[in-house]
Write a structure and sequence with these properties.
6-stranded mixed beta sheet; 8 strands; 25% strand; globular
Length: 189
Amino acid sequence: MKKDRMGLFLIIFLITISLFLIILPTFSSKHSGRVEMHREINLPLLDAQKEKLLFVFFGYTGCVDICTPRLTQVGHWYRSLKDPLQEESKFLFFDLSRPAEISMPDEFAKAFNPEFEGIYLDDETLNDYSRAFDVYYAPSLSREYEYDHTPHLYMLKKGKHGYNLRYIYFAYPYDLQQIETDIKELLRE
């Protein structure tokens, strides 16, 4: 009997979290649709980057409902960025699903923009990175082979000791003019 209650509690909890993640952007889009912060994130895959700005998105290969529309929007916009905005930045797609082929995340990311880089994360690395960015992800309760996950776009700026998380864009569609303004301001700092 206790196992049944615990299972029911877990299902209700996951549904509540999922609804919160879906509804939050609706309420927040009346504002800027972003959160500004200054949080240092030191992770090996980030530290290896050379660009002044990084965009990070967590998703999974084959994600149709969440990743595809967001990556399509950002991919078209990223192509339209003028130099030096594009030269000074890089887009990284971190795969939450740990696909069978290590090359699949990069192929998936490049389908939206050839400049994007998709990165395979093993279990340990995935835990470290999702914790550092406060990313929620879990296997979907309703669809096999799918994940519920945080669909935010993260912007980081290179600092003296690694990268600093500066903005989280959570309202979809993303306010691309605001993102471009933020890029210009960060590059002037």
